Amino acid sequence: xxxxxxxxxxxxxxxxxxxxxxxxxxxxxxxxxxxxxxxxxxxxxxxxxxxxxxxxxxxxxxxxxxxxxxxxxxxxxxxxxxxxxxxxxxxxxxxxxxxxxxxxxxxxxxxxxxxxxxxxxxxxxxxxxxxxxxxxxxxxxxxxxxxxxxxxxxxxxxxxxxxxxxxxxxxxxxxxxxxxxxxxxxxxxxxxxxxxxxxxxxxxxxxxxxxxxxxxxxxxxxxxxxxxxxxxxxxxxxxxxxxxxxxxxxxxxxxxxxxxxxxxxxxxxxxxxxxxxxxxxxxxxxxxxxxxxxxxxxxxxxxxxxxxxxxxxxxxxxxxxxxxxxxxxxxxxxxxxxxxxxxxxxxxxxxxxxxxxxxxxxxxxxxxxxxxxxxxxxxxxxxxx
Length: 385
Hints:
Layout: E1 17-21, H1 26-38, E2 43-48, E3 59-63, H2 69-79, E4 83-86, H3 102-124, E5 130-134, H4 138-141, E6 148-151, H5 163-177, E7 184-190, E8 192-194, H6 202-211, E9 217-219, E10 225-226, E11 228-230, H7 231-246, E12 258-262, E13 268-269, H8 270-280, E14 289-291, H9 293-310, H10 319-326, E15 329-331, H11 334-340, H12 348-355, H13 360-368
Parallel strand pairs: 1-2, 1-4, 2-3, 4-5, 5-7, 6-15, 7-12, 8-11, 9-14
Antiparallel strand pairs: 10-13
Helix pairs in contact: 1-7, 2-3, 3-5, 6-13, 9-10
């Protein structure tokens, strides 16, 4: 992780109270754990619609729906935190990722955009002096009309063609616009996150390809690159950002008012990532079958038409999923190193091994309950939070 962790000379005489929204979830829970390990004397609150699935000793739980301003105002006013990390959000999974239905977009924006505005507004009415927003790499990369190799923070946002990235962009802009000397804000843009307990189903979706006999398929050339991030690395980045905003002497530089990409800093070929996952489950594709992108696109269109005509459940194969699967999208972490002093502690090889360190039965359950409803060959869920 490196970076600058607050010591007694950097912090106020009273221990800070940190509120993390969405801390019952995958990333939010990891962020809480990182703060607890670094600052065991700090007061912590988890604000979430759902109680935590496992006990969080030393953490107060407050139930609130971030889409309801009155609930958020009351919860945050009572907690009266010194800083907030806003992780709460909703990620459309599977075929929903590529849907542009009015209902889907309405739900995504209500939670990810309006929900952030509600938390931000509530924070500004209290003594809160630091606000870390969990944004996403998708504020840029969800623009499927373009390739994004080595993304940097100077690329304009607001051009996402998919609902998730489109909802995260205005939320990020609002948070950064609220930055003042008395209320410091920043936004982190995590890459696709993997790790044990991944509720987004990244590993489960890739694992599902084995049973479906889809592992030999290669859509496009197979040489498109993505980057990923291990869960504790992204939690570390949130801790560094929090400490940076709270510090009276931020080191290496101030993160206030800044958006910052964070990943494992190890972009890999998309195909190699899948092969590494399958290898953890002792599977090697028996052969390789290259499906040209135009052919896959036509098949995706046909699947969409079939869904529209029959009213059946949307297929994970679509024009959007094909474009997603063949695109190159990874970010530079130069700013994360320069501003936060961020370096990932868990490298790619260990990240894959640890992320797969759950039972096959768990993945089967995910498939049964619809949490792994397709193969990553037809598009990978990009997410955060």
